[in-house]
Design a protein that fits this description.
It is a single chain. The chain has about 90 residues and is an all-alpha fold. The chain has a single domain, classed as Rossmann fold. The chain contains six helices and no strands. The longest helix has 16 residues. The chain is globular.
């Protein structure tokens, strides 16, 4: 966290920013709850992501983890009310 904070300090006033770890809310999500959320997300919607489309067009794969990760990032947005969110990565590590 300290390395990340050093990198973004020129852009963020940490005296007025709140740092949160998504484990606060994600650790409470059960597998049945996650499956229920995933059931509401059309795969076609996720395939609209340019990165996913490009990789599939180039014959590269797309893991289930990458698909689910984008949904988890959306769950973060629902869990907190923030003006701006920073952090995370665009896709899960391969």
């Amino acid at each position: 966290m300290s390395t990340y904070q050093q990198q973004v300090t020129p852009f963020i006033d940490f005296e007025h920013a709140e740092l949160r770890f998504n484990g606060e809310w994600l650790n409470k999500v059960s597998l049945p709850q996650l499956v229920e959320i995933l059931a509401r997300v059309p795969v076609s919607m996720s395939l609209q992501h340019e990165d996913f489309r490009t990789r599939l067009a180039e014959g590269q794969g797309l893991s289930v983890a990458e698909f689910v990760y984008s949904v988890v990032m959306a769950m973060d947005s629902v869990a907190i009310t923030a003006d701006v969110e920073l952090g995370g990565v665009g896709r899960a590590p391969r």
